[in-house]
Amino acid sequence: MKILLLEDDKNLHASIKAYLEMEGFSVDSAYGSDDVYDLTFYNCYDLYIFDVQVPGDDGFKILKSLKDAEDKTPTIYTTAQVDISSVAKGFDVGGDDYIKKPYDPEELVIRIKGRYMKKDLLYYKDLHYDRVTKELFKNSELIILTEVLRNLFHQLIIEKGKIVSHGVLLELLEQPNPNALRVNLSKLKSKLNLDIKNVRGIGYMLEEL
Prior knowledge:
This protein is α/β, with parallel strands linked by helices. The protein is 41% helix and 23% strand.
């Protein structure tokens, strides 16, 4: 899950980012509105975490600008401003949640996992995969695979950490044979930077990170 973190307090920013990355999230850093506008122009994100009082446009104006540009990314505000008018303004411009400062990073992670991570998404390094639509993304960019490679990846990712037998994988090939399987798995490893382990005589396994 790729997150854009907007927080101008550099010490707090560093600690929150480190905690999120320890939990397996990919985090880009923004310290003011200019950073947000630059990063969102070139990147897509799964979630925004925005402070309100930051250099340049405040967090409310930033999100309104993004929503006006049809950006539908869910947003959590982290702020000490929790009076009714501020909360209402945050939701009016498209915010989804508030966390009052100071807060425990663990609370933030619990909210992210409980509310914003799609249950059908599987994550591996910088990849996320929708096992229902079979869409694969690398840093939020759609990756196109051949049908054979897509089917092999699907089988390995849904069984991540478990051995998938040669027989199961061979059935996914157009012309099933061990050499073709090795070639296609090599292509998959190279294209996606996967850690695929050959369990001799049994099958293959996408190793846990």
